[in-house]
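tool_call predict_complex ligand=glutamic acid
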Amino acid sequence: MRKTRYAAAAIAAVAALTLSACGGGSDSGSESGSTEGSGEKIRIGIKFDQPGLGFKDGSEFTGFDVDVAKYVANELGYPEDQIEFMASPSAQRENMLENDQLDMIFATYSITDTRKEKVAFAGPYFVAGQDLLVPADSDIAGPEDLEGKNLCSVTGSTSAQKIKDEKAAGVNLLEQPSYAECVTAMQGGQIDAVTTDDIILAGLASTDANKGKFKVVGNPFSEEKYGVGLPKEGGVVTCEDINTAITKMIDDGAWEEAIKKNTEGADYTFNAEMNPPKMDACA
Ligand code: GLU
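tool_result ok
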């Protein structure tokens, strides 16, 4: 059932149990399949360039996605030193799970039926809404004002897809590999607006380099339920265990603390009707 790389951990676990049994052993208490103490790492996909959500700051990783990932991983038996954070850009998330490059994704990853054809989701652990980021002096107040404008979003995101599918006919959509690149294009004046989830835009607008230059329109036009992406088959963690961990994080106050800490100083108020969310049933 498990993949080769876990066989070593299993053998190590059995060896440890055998040794403790020989030694007249203390009660190990560890369940079979637990990786605790084995040093086995869990590979978690996050964003590296979304301040406040998933951000690589030198050798540190910060943001709400990162805090939820660390909490959940710890509950599953992987303390921080057993987490390997990897970048999972929007367009590569399904592929990375399908190709066994990652065990879990916490990367502003909306649960959608299309994605569920390729991957599984636990959660949701947050609900955001698609919005627009515009220059501070812009008149754009919603997607209806985008006709003839240059809009930037990210390849493989629900944000770009929604614009293509239904919103704002006559808009020129430029797709970039990441939202940070969209903001750079807007700084240069080539772009009139950037679209993605409100919480992502608020984080980008609040950095020292961008402060005062841009505003989040504050007129969300979708519901983005952030799930924990999992491989459909052969995963090392279960959707049920992840949902239990997220529920615990919400109940013990750590979830709220993480949201507050990571949106501090950003122009952002989350949708309190939708948050904290209830877990979906696992498939
Ligand atoms: N939540 C949306 C999505 O999953 C937009 C943010 C992103 O690209 O990560 O596509």
